Amino acid sequence: MTKPLLTKIKLLTILMLILTFTVVSLSFLPKAKAETEIISLTPSSGYVGTTVQLIGNISSEGGQYIVQFDEIDIASGNATGYEVTETFNVTSTFVGDNTFAGDHNVTLIDVKAEENDTATFTVLTSYSLEILPKLEPPAQRQEGDNVTILLNVTGGEPSKTLVANITVQAPTNASYTNLLNVTTLNTGSGSANITYPESFSTSPNTNFTGGYKVFRNETLTGAFTIGLTNASEYHRFQCVNVKAVGYKQNENVTITISFEEATIHSKNVTAEMGVIHYANWTIPSNASIGTYTLNITSISPNATIKEVPDTQDFTVPGFDVNVTTRNLAGEFVQDITVLVKEDGELVDNKTSGAKGLVGLKLEVANYSCEAKYKDEKVGVFSLNVTGELSLDFNCSLTNLRIFVKDKVGHNIPEVKLYLVPENETLTTDIDGTAVAHSLLPFNVKNITYVLNASRYDDKHFNTTIITQLPAKPWVNRTVICPTLKLHVNVTDAKNQPIQNATVQAREFMGGLPYEGNTVDGNVTLNCVFGKYNVRVYANGIKLNETTIDLFENQSLLINCTYYGLKVYVTVVDYFGQPIPNANVTLQCEGLPLRSNRTEYNGVATFSDFIGGSVQITIYLNDQTQPCVKTTSSVDSSTTIRIKIGRYVLIAGILVETSQLATALIIAAAIILILSIEVYRRKHLKKKKSSS
Questions:
Q1: Distance CA 526, CA 553 (A)
Q2: Residue 255 pLDDT > 70, yes or no?
Q3: Over residues 160-179, mean pLDDT
């Protein structure tokens, strides 16, 4: 062996030893596991009230964990595997009094492993303004009213006085400023309030209508509105309260209220102590829904001219009145128009949507309503509106339910019913039923309805006329599908009639099968109008099938070429000699076993055979185990030749081929030995004679 080759072998040996040592060493190392850590805090900073999601891992699989906020337990549970997902709110409910500004520790603790990890959440300072008292719309403040401005601080520095610069900007763009001191608690929260205009200097006021903006340290954080009326909307019969300030003592003004440029009310009022106060007018009982304009104008000499005119809009909105239109069966009806009249005049009309809903806006009053469907009046009803209202109204509309059956009462599915004059196509369901919804009955409009029934690509079979449809929730009508005669003649492979064959007709669209047995090859079935698949069976075996359109009486010939066949099975030995008296059995699926023996010519004959896949089994010499088992397909009269190579027929006796071959070999050997011995003896005798 050469030296370079020895060197290579040594290097390979060393490398294999190193790899083996590494694998063995790694197998003794402890398995890797998750460490306790906080993967993320989302978000990592925020105001008091922020919801935070913690995602992390712990070392103990499925182990218990605790989440702390500045050493306060705020959540606990068991990990999913090694994973922890937890949410908490940064409020006093969860984190105690630790809501002051700055960084706070969030700690994840693995209870079993006694491990933990910490992340930081930063609380930010939040300022908010509230305008008091809070008014629920449509209530609103009026000229001359005081407003309380409340400043709230959360997440601030603990126990510290903060100074805020509060500025109010009036509709005239004039601004008024004052300082507000807020002292926080140890939690970092605090509040203080100031009253506008009382607590502000340089002649502030609420003498003008419109929006007032509130700023904290030049940042817009609030707003309020001043109006002339104590509400921004009124309903009929409600009193309109008007107040305006900034006028001279005993100054006369005119208050006008207009709607769509028409004055509907006017009143002269005198100011008392510079204040106009008027509360002697109510919304009229016939007031229209819409926007109204109120205007105050001085009519005194040396009249006051305000920098922002005393003009304000208010609305008469109406109440939400929801009417759900239904038919007499209680179903929603779309496209019904509801016309609403007050004192004979149309005030509103709306059309119902998919769920029969009609949304109206109506003021306090008694109304007469009319429902129309396809331009026909289908009902009237009254409304007494005093507030928001919801009601159902059943219109005079009828549901027509159609049953399609055969003459013995079986339901017929998939029938098309074309309804005139609705120009609507209905289809019967699996129960043979179809419904035409919300039809006009004869007491609304005397319509004659026509139903044209058809199947299979509009093959018409019935016309039903419906006159004077009654005004009832449901009206039932039955349509009879005609029954037709199907005469079937069944013949075998020799065109001879098949006795007692079963003929079955099943419609393409399902339903019950029609069935009968042949007499002299003939059977007549009474089937419903339609398309059919017709099958012929003998002893449960399908012989043939075909299809037929049965839209009138029909005759049908079905030739069963697999029935009445003759099958000859020829059994021969290795040399092709016929084997007599072999037991041949034929087995078709679903049919009884048939057996016969071969004659002198090796042929077994089977008459009146039903074709198909046939299993052939052959037994020899009354054996219990088959000699041959094979499969053949038979679709006509035929001869099947089966060669049994295992046997040879000698003098009428079956001998196994292997035994015959052995015997022949032995015989040949004996003959050879005898020939050699004869030759040897002749040669020896000749030799002695020569001597």
A1: 9
A2: yes
A3: 96
The span from the CA of 242 to the CA of 263, in Å, is 17
Q: What is the pLDDT of residue 14?
A: 52
Tokens representing residue 181 in the block: 């001191």
Q: What pLDDT score does 31 carry?
A: 41
pLDDT at 134 over 90: yes
163-168 long-range contacts, CB within 8 A, separation 24+: 164/127, 164/216, 164/217, 165/215, 165/216, 165/217, 165/218, 166/194, 166/214, 166/215, 166/216, 167/214, 167/215, 167/218, 168/196, 168/197, 168/200, 168/204, 168/212, 168/213, 168/214, 168/215
Model confidence at 9, pLDDT cuts 50, 70, 90, reads very low
* CA–CA separation, 152 and 56 (whole Å): 35
Q: Structure tokens of 308?
A: 């922002």
Number of Cβ atoms within 10 Å of the Cβ of 100: 22
Topology of the domain comprising 37-123: Immunoglobulin-like (2.60.40)
Under the banding of pLDDT at 50, 70 and 90, the label for residue 386 is very high
- Relative to beta strand 219-227, strand 141-142 is parallel
Q: Within its chain, how far is the Cα of 539 from the centroid?
A: 49
Tokens of 174: 């004039």
CATH topology for 319-394 is Immunoglobulin-like (2.60.40)
Tokens describing residue 589: 């699926």
The pTM for the full model equals: 0.69
Residue 393 token pair: 């109204």
CATH number for region 565-655: 2.60.40.10
Q: Could you tell me the two tokens for 305?
A: 């001219």
CA distance 530 to 510: 11
The partner residues of 202 in beta bridges, in order of sequence, read none
Task: Render 223-251 in DSSP notation, one character per residue.
Answer: EEEEESBSBSB--TT-EEEEEEES--TT-
Whole-angstrom distance, CA of residue 441 vs CA of residue 431: 26
CB hemisphere CA count around 32 (13 angstroms): 1
Question: Do residues 485 and 528 lie in contact, with contact meaning Cβ atoms separated by under 8 Å?
Answer: no
DSSP state of 124: P
Q: Assign domain 126-227 to its CATH superfamily.
A: Immunoglobulins (2.60.40.10)
**Could you tell me how far CA 513 lies from the centroid of its own chain?**
37
**495 Cβ contact partners less than 8 Å away, ≥ 6 residues apart:** 559
605, 566 in Cβ contact below 8 A?
yes
Domain 398-480 is classified in which CATH homologous superfamily? Carboxypeptidase-like, regulatory domain (2.60.40.1120)
pLDDT tens-digit readout, 522-541: 999 999 999 999 999 988 88
Residues 6+ apart with CB under 8 A from 674: none
Q: How confident is the model over 452-477, as a mean pLDDT? A: 95
pLDDT surpassing 90 at residue 652: no
- Cα–Cα distance list, 303 to 244, 245, 267, 278, 297 (Å): 15, 14, 17, 19, 9
In this predicted structure, the answer to whether residue 19 has a pLDDT above a threshold of 90 is: no
Residue 688 has pLDDT above 80, yes or no: no
Predicted confidence (pLDDT) at residue 473 exceeds the cutoff of 70: yes
- The CATH code that applies to domain 483-559 is 2.60.40.1120
Asked whether the beta carbons of 316 and 233 are under 8 A apart, the reply is yes
Mode of pairing for the β-strands spanning 565-572 and 638-643 = parallel
Both structure tokens of 403: 């049953």
- The pLDDT value given to residue 691: 62
Grade residue 622 by pLDDT with cuts at 50, 70 and 90: confident
